[in-house]
Write a structure and sequence with these properties.
Blueprint: H1 2-35, H2 40-73, H3 75-84, H4 89-112, H5 115-122, H6 125-136, H7 143-160, H8 162-167, H9 171-199, H10 209-241, H11 252-278, H12 281-289, H13 293-301, H14 309-328
């Protein structure tokens, strides 16, 4: 029964994250279609601004989740859990910076690259999470896993096609694209670490679903509100530095869409945390990684992006590698 619940939660999470990515992609591609590419500063400003709106919505919904969980369990039980909660401040600060960075880079990449290529790279994040967990947390890696990682890195080169970036003398975009799976992998590893630390002082065998949601909500509120603050400060600085610079014009309907995408992101985050606490990390990570299929299909079917044979092979290698690393090994 617990396996079915975890699978359902992980599937919901994958759908929510995939839908969030599609909404972001649709908004940005529409801005590009109607207003042109403008310049890099306009893209960077809009990437920060969009992220700020997203995490207003995400923080608001997460706070509602927290209030509902407190109402269900009672204030005394919540205060007991909150008093027992241990959060490593250094890890949470690093995680906030990484969370801001990866979301900012992905939004910026959508302005400059194809959706299909970006999210094909995201499928490789569990591979880098395994490498990072080995390097930073001392987790063991079997010979089978090591061989799988090497094969996956070869597949990564097919998806990225570094020769294109070198030929176009666009090394900065190459580094940005390479950073996406690496930072996602680091983020996943730190999420796992902070959740373990947060729960270590609480008797998880006695904590109910409402208590678990309250713990997850507290962690997410810290991350989401800080991400909003960083994005807001970044856009404010850019606006003050060049006040007369042309920016993308965004109407109220677009703002509402961005805000709603933040709500969707929050649901995906909550359900993924809950799934990780119910079932083994392996199964949950594998299912959530499938989120990338949604924006890849959107890019191919809706935007008409061409998926080359090399990219298709690279995506298949990534999905097979994730299954091998998390389930078989």
């Amino acid at each position: 029964m617990s396996s079915l619940i975890a699978t359902t939660l992980a599937t919901i999470s994958a759908i929510m994250f995939g839908t969030y990515s599609v909404i972001q992609a649709a908004i940005i591609k529409e801005l590009l279609r109607t207003q042109g590419r403008n310049d890099k500063l306009s893209q960077e400003f809009t990437a920060g601004w969009l992220q700020a709106i997203v995490f207003v919505g995400a923080s608001l919904l997460t706070f509602i989740f927290l209030l509902v969980s407190i109402f269900i369990m009672g204030i005394e039980e919540f205060l007991h859990i909150f008093g027992s909660l241990y959060i490593d401040i250094v890890i949470i600060i690093v995680l906030i910076l990484i969370h801001f960075g990866v979301n900012y880079i992905v939004i910026l990449a959508i302005f400059r690259e194809s959706i299909s290529r970006i999210f094909a790279l995201v499928t490789y994040s569990p591979v880098f999470a395994t490498i990072i967990a080995f390097a930073l947390l001392g987790e063991s890696v079997t010979m089978f896993q090591a061989i799988t990682i090497i094969i996956c890195l070869a597949g990564l080169s097919l998806v990225m096609d570094p020769r294109y970036y070198i030929r176009e003398s666009n090394i900065l975009n190459l580094l940005m694209m390479l950073a996406i799976p690496i930072i996602f992998g680091l983020q996943n590893t730190l999420f796992k670490s902070i959740l373990i630390h947060a729960m270590q002082e609480i008797n998880t065998s006695k904590i109910d679903v409402a208590g678990l949601i309250s713990v997850v909500s507290i962690i997410n509120i810290m991350i989401f509100t800080a991400t909003f603050a960083l994005a807001f400060i970044l856009t404010l600085i850019m606006k003050l530095e060049q006040p007369g610079k042309k920016k993308y014009n965004v109407d109220n309907l677009t703002i509402i869409k961005v805000f709603l995408s933040g709500l969707i992101f929050a649901i995906g985050s909550i359900t993924s945390f809950l799934a990780l606490n119910i079932q083994k990390v392996a199964l949950v990570v594998t299912i959530i990684t499938m989120q990338s299929i949604i924006p890849i299909l959107y890019g191919a079917l809706r935007l008409g992006e061409k998926i080359s044979l090399n990219m298709m092979i690279g995506i298949i290698i990534a999905l097979a590698g994730v299954i091998a690393l998390t389930c078989i090994a």
